[in-house]
Design goal:
The chain is of the alpha/beta class. Helix content is about 35%, strand content about 25%.
Length: about 190
């Protein structure tokens, strides 16, 4: 069992998400640079723990009109804010909102790429969540796990980074992402 256990107090509050989505962040977390080699036009992508959509909106631009981004979150207020922002930026037709329950993604579409950015440490049972992510990825699909260096101890990162392999993923790289521990896995078919 992972050392950080979630309860409702550990879930990022909706209002705090605005601090993570600002022009300065684009200087250190440029989505095109981070995901451009993995996400292409026409792909179906899942942004799990999407918050107010910093990455969902950028991923929508990467997959284009022929692709789809499933923005998945526990908090309806996050999803509502994301959709409003996506409308203003003209990508709402590419984004599909999906509200999850605490213990289940309850999501059954297949995707080419799945992302959890700074959220897996908040999940009560990360192994179960990773099994669910594995089940929605297409064969040879890519999963990107990114966790913050700031408040997640290395011991937790070490445990979290091994869990996808136990689910059947193969680790293919550890890209450099600012302020983060980052891992890329592949679902080998």
């Amino acid at each position: 069992m992972i050392g950080i256990i979630n309860n409702d107090k550990k879930v990022c509050p909706w209002w705090l998400a605005f601090t993570f989505d600002n022009p300065i962040r684009r200087l250190i977390h440029d989505p095109k640079k981070i995901f451009g080699s993995y996400v292409k036009k026409g792909m179906n992508v899942a942004d799990i723990g999407c918050g107010i959509g910093y990455f969902s909106i950028a991923l929508a631009k990467l997959v284009g009109d022929s692709g789809c981004v499933y923005s998945i979150d526990l908090q309806q207020k996050m999803l509502n804010t994301l959709y409003s922002r996506a409308q203003k930026l003209g990508v709402n037709h590419i984004i599909r909102l999906h509200k999850v329950e605490k213990d289940s993604l309850n999501f059954h579409n297949e995707v080419d790429f799945a992302l959890t950015f700074w959220m897996l440490h908040e999940v009560p049972d990360p192994f179960e969540k990773l099994k669910q992510i594995y089940s929605i990825l297409k064969p040879n699909g890519i999963y990107c796990l990114v966790e913050p260096k700031i408040h997640v101890p290395n011991s937790i990162i070490n445990e979290l980074s091994k869990l996808p392999i136990k689910c059947g993923f193969t680790k293919i790289s550890e890209p450099k992402i600012a302020l983060s521990h980052s891992f890329i896995y592949k679902k080998v078919a």
